[in-house]
Design brief:
The protein has 2 domains: about 5-120, 3-Layer(aba) Sandwich (Cobalt-precorrin-4 Transmethylase, domain 1); about 125-235, 2-Layer Sandwich (Methyltransferase, Cobalt-precorrin-4 Transmethylase, Domain 2). The strands form 2 sheets. The protein has a 5-stranded parallel β-sheet with strand order 3-2-4-1-5, with helices on one face. With about 240 residues, it is of the alpha/beta class. α3 links the parallel β2 (about 40) and β3. The chain contains 10 helices and 10 strands.
């Protein structure tokens, strides 16, 4: 089958938190989703909720949802792409935000490129980019580290390393944490980093409860230092 006749792999952002789908995605993307009946998803429950809220014109039981989560490998990716080789298009849905960014979908996209399939990214919310935009930090040079190590000594060592990296390269450092560990991480940052280093914490992005605080470590220590269990992005910038 020619490349033009093959299906496309559509990378579809998902609303952050409880943000209304219609407010988070352009109408063109919503219209595209309505034409698909095959979805490769990080989490089946959240994907069904998302498709219900659009709402998808077909009953959910008529849609094919296939799981590709952090346990997915290259073999599974190739298997899931077989319908595309036969001309059927698919939508990739992360649990929240943009597929493949802080998300296991990269292997799937790599396999699609290897198979000569067209990969189509769509516009939508990305917590990482929204946080960087709102931080006031260097948007020309930045690095995303995902989750920092959980063990205390390893985490503290990594914080020191990325602070030095930020200072040496004039680079914004971005990382995330499981919500219930937000305040543990914040305390570690305030203990370890220089008072002149800047820290931004962006929580509940796009939601009515959204907060973004960007200040020096010294200024953070003077005010409220509790985030709570809210989805948050941390950004560090040392100069």
């Amino acid at each position: 089958m020619s490349a033009a006749a093959k299906g496309k792999l559509h990378l579809i952002p998902v609303a952050l938190g409880g943000d209304p789908v219609q407010a988070a995605l352009p109408q063109a993307t919503l219209d595209l989703i309505a034409t698909l009946d095959y979805f490769i998803v990080e989490n089946e429950k959240s994907a069904r909720r998302f498709l219900k809220h659009i709402p998808h014109p077909k009953p959910l039981q008529q849609l094919q949802l296939e799981l590709f989560d952090k346990g997915g490998d290259a073999t599974r990716a190739i298997e899931l792409l077989q319908p595309l080789n036969a001309g059927r298009s698919a939508g990739v849905l992360s649990e929240a935000g943009c597929p493949t960014v802080a998300d296991p979908g990269a292997l799937l996209v790599e396999a699609a490129h290897r198979a000569g399939l067209r990969v189509v990214p769509h516009v939508g919310p990305s917590a990482l980019l929204l946080a960087l935009m709102a931080s006031g930090f260097n948007g020309q040079r930045f690095a995303f580290h995902g989750y920092l190590p959980v063990p205390k000594d390893e985490c503290r060592g990594e914080i020191g390393r990325i602070e030095r990296e930020s200072r040496a390269g004039d680079q914004t450092q971005i990382f995330i944490e499981t919500p219930y560990r937000n305040d543990v991480l914040l305390r570690a940052l305030l203990e370890i980093c220089s008072g002149k280093t800047r820290l931004c914490v962006a929580s509940d992005l796009t939601l009515p409860t959204e907060t973004v605080r960007s200040a020096t470590i010294a200024e953070w220590k003077q005010g409220k230092t509790e985030i709570g269990r809210r989805p948050s992005v941390f950004l560090l910038y040392a100069r």
